[in-house]
Amino acid sequence: MRLSLRLLQQQIVTCNACPRLRTYCEAVAIDKKRAYLDQTYWGKPVPGFGDPAAWLWIIGLAPGAHGANRTGRMFTGDRSGDFLYAALHRTKLANQPTSVSIDDGLKLTGVYIGAAGRCAPPDNKPLPVELAACSVYLDREWDLLKQKRVILALGAIAWDATIALAARKPQPIPSPRPKFGHGSLVQLGEVWLIGSYHVSQQNTFTGKLTPAMFDAVLATAKAKAKQQKSLG
Q1: Residue 140 confidence class, pLDDT cut points 50, 70, 90
Q2: Residue 77: CB atoms within 10 Å
Q3: Which of 44, 78, 115, 176 is deepest in the core (most CB within 10 A)?
Q4: If you count DSSP H runs as helices and E runs as strands, how many of each does the chain have, helices first?
């Protein structure tokens, strides 16, 4: 399974399916942000990252222009990652509370992190056709992450992408179609789906999402994973 995930990661990095996104990411990598002028930007699609034996699969929106698009690893090098990895470290799912570069020694235990989109989009708004193009990578991760029991969707776009993904597998989808909300919880056949506000600076700096709120979501994820394991 490790080899298959590695091959999938390589396929993601070389993807050229969305010209608008490739043009934008490459332009950002050239122009750069003043604080990072001395750094070489990744500037390519960003693959998933984490434990191949993960029980928790976290799905975000897309790489940040000066975060993952710069460093080459999901939620690495920006304030969103600062918040996320600090929380994972508090719950003993990460070996350190920070994620600053692709070679900083960060390791996740029981967690794999992906995204609905693999390229940084202008204004953090991928187009529906671009999300559709990236959905094939979520499909493959679903197949390869065989020990997943809980999916944590960060934001409404990731939530909707996960519902659509489960329907393709196919897994039973409750009716009416579940709507996103912070703390929303729904069973999709073999896995539980939990929603959380995105860990973006816009949410965490305004108090819309606090560390305590996110810790509670992770606690729910752990409880549901134990429940699924006991049933299995």
Answers
A1: very high
A2: 25
A3: 115
A4: 8, 6
